[in-house]
Amino acid sequence: MSEIKTEFYKRNAAKAIKDPVLQHALSDVQNRLGPATALAYKNLPEGMALRQKAHEIRQFAINHLDILLETLVKKIRDRGGTVYFARDAADATSYCLKVAKENQIKMVVKGKSMVTEEIGLNKILEANQIEVNETDLGEYIIQLAGETPSHIIAPAIHKTRKEVAQLFTQKLGIPYCEDPPVLTQAARKTLRKKFLAADMGLSGCNLACAETGHITTVSNEGNIRMSTTMPKVHMAFMGMERVVARLEDHDALFRLLSRGAAAQNMAGYVSYIGGPRTEDQLDGPDQFHLVILDNGRSRILADPEFREILLCIRCAACLNVCPAYGKIGGHSYGYPYSGPIGAVITPLFVGVNRAKDLCCGEPLCGACKEACPVDIDLPRMLLGLRAKLAEGDPKWGVTQANSMEKIAFQIWSLIIRNRRVYDLALKTGSLIQKLLPKKNGMITTMPFIFKGWTQSRDIKPLARSSFLTQWKNRENKP
Amino acid sequence: MTGPITQEINDAQQHEFIMTIQKALGKSSGPALPELFGTAPNDLDTRLNAYINKSQPDRMALLDLFIEQAQLLNLAVRPVENVSRAGLAIQEFIEQTQPEWGTQKSVIAWHHPLIEQLNLGKNLADDITLFTTRSSSAPDSKERAQIRSQLINSYIGISAADFCVAQSATLVLRTRPHQPRAVSLVPSIHVAVITLDQIIENLTELYFRLKWDPEEQKLGLTNCMTFISGPSKTGDIELVMVHGAHGPRQMIVYVITG
């Protein structure tokens, strides 16, 4: 299991906002990728409507997930592949370790995979004396730095070229140089040796196809092709929801995924992998293992309110437009999934109370829904999670986050439904506010439970008399 | 590798896993498979016919679209009249380029009818070694290790392709005997040779033909079908685009138009 640090959301967010380097990097990502993706959608021959079609394709797949998975695994087994169904993170990592030990694996090369971050695979392999090499350049940078990804598809986006240059000088022993092509070449040279020496390759899975019995992997660097072609064992990890029924479903989905992730017409490499090397072939792995992971997904599937989040194809388009992510960055979310997708899925994975700040921190502006290539209504689910926090929900094990809040709103509801009581409350308020500190005619500090309202802004005092009273006085005048 | 007892445990675990999903979905069984995966459209023959027998002007228009899209990806497209011109052009290219790692100029080419016709072995300069990936019907580990080492030591890999999708400048390669995947991956430069009739319009056409054309159904997608759209690239350092992350840093497609 990945380390959960969702409790420190507020503290880490405050730190991130004060980090000028991070602020620059985040606005750069958002200014460039956000609008580029929006334009790429607009330029689709089918226009924005393709997103609704993709939504339906994903919805259809989720509704038939049982049959699709059974069809997929049968075809993969028929080709000589091995499939393992893992209930949770521990189950998945121990299977991986078992296969690694059976094959005396000393070194693995890894393609970028969010699901292996979710199950915390690297730590477990390393604890068993297996060398793990992340090979996506961004993942490689953060592995060298001992950090975690801060963006789903650009994991090292919080690092400047200066920091990467210092890191590579220190860890790879190359002369200091800030030029991205030179830095990329240094990583290329180092990792090429690893690709050719590793005995096991690990990858995720972008979208499987049930009909043909293939998983797919997508990259621009070619590192996933390397990891799944050169070592003698390939193990792929997929969240159980990452499958569609028909081959032609990939038409809309790959075009949208490429646009959502990086505003590309098509990702550089897409591989359909359906089994190990056959005896007449010259390369490819001798063993192909697919691990299909539940780890909390079936619980989400069982709740119609949140089932829609399983449609997600992890493109990170929502991160690139989210005003909250754009200020606090990926690390604040305290779990591998960040941004609006993280704010919905992390509470469902690790506990709504434990990750309550994530869903409360998003602004509900709707930008994520518009950017989503499969048109997921993220704001609706953010609100749904907040409702659970407000009311409590035994089904999800959610306890009411603040019982006083509910009582306060019940009292407020009584007050505003009775004109006389309301007027009395206004009058009392306008008397009490005379005692409060003010600056330029604005209240700067409120007491007790109201203090949150003036934490980062001043508030206007109540008017001397209410609008209705003023209106009546006007009308009564001749 | 897995004994019968382990297999039984695995089956039980799969059963439990699928049952959990069915319970979550609130159902016991789903629709019949044809409904899930689609049935052959009524106009299947007409559509296939239109796809396979494109007119020459249509094919040339697709080539133009491919060239236009390839440009955006730093993918070079070189139309040539016939296969012998392609052979000469590739030979010239090999003579003009230098290896990325080391000094030995080695080139590896697929054992494939179209690539054989290039006649590359004939006129190459003495300092250039050409490897071909011809193998026995069931290559043993020694034979595979030999070709792997030739592949690693080659700076140019020459392959054919099954299709070329014009709209996204994507080559589609399926795995076959004598045609290792790594030829389009490990060498620093990937050279592909295709014929004009292999260029198709878009993914819709590709998937339709793979799914419904009886000729394509025979082979299927194989155990590894790869889409390649341009040379390897990364933007992981400050979103600066760099070509040649882990795969080929340069890619050229020769299109035989005659």
Outline the secondary-structure elements:
The complex is a heterodimer of chains A (478) and B (258).
Chain A lengths: L8 H9 L2 H23 L6 H15 L1 H14 L3 E5 L2 H14 L4 E4 L3 H5 L2 H7 L3 E4 L2 H9 L15 H12 L7 H18 L2 E4 L4 E2 L5 E5 L3 H7 L3 E7 L3 E2 L4 H14 L6 E5 L13 E7 L3 H5 L23 H4 L10 H12 L5 H6 L5 H5 L6 H14 L11 H14 L2 H14 L5 E2 L2 E2 L23 H10 L2
Parallel strand pairs in A: 1-10, 2-3, 2-4, 4-7, 5-8, 7-10
Antiparallel strand pairs in A: 6-9, 11-12
Chain B lengths: L3 H22 L7 H5 L6 H9 L3 H17 L3 E5 L2 H14 L8 E5 L3 H4 L3 H4 L4 E5 L8 H12 L3 E4 L3 E3 L4 E5 L14 E7 L3 E2 L2 H10 L1 H6 L4 E5 L4 E2 L7 E2 L6 E7 L2
Parallel strand pairs in B: 1-12, 2-3, 2-4, 4-7, 5-8, 7-12
Antiparallel strand pairs in B: 5-6, 6-9, 10-11
Please explain how this structure is put together:
The complex is a heterodimer of chains A (478) and B (258). Chain A has 478 residues and is α/β, with parallel strands linked by helices. In chain A, 48% of the residues lie in helices and 10% in strands. Chain A has 2 domains: 6-299, Rossmann fold; 403-476, no CATH class. In chain A, the strands form 4 sheets. Chain A has a 6-stranded parallel beta sheet, with helices on both faces. In chain A, strands 5-8 form a two-stranded parallel ribbon. In chain A, strands 6-9 form a two-stranded antiparallel sheet. Chain A is elongated, with a radius of gyration of 26 Å. Chain B is of the alpha/beta class and 258 residues long. Chain B has one domain: NagB/RpiA/CoA transferase-like (Rossmann fold, 3-Layer(aba) Sandwich). In chain B, 40% of the residues lie in helices and 20% in strands. Chain B starts with a helix and ends with a strand. The interface between A and B is large, with 96 and 81 residues. Strand 9 of chain A pairs antiparallel with strand 9 (224-228) of chain B, so a sheet runs across the interface.
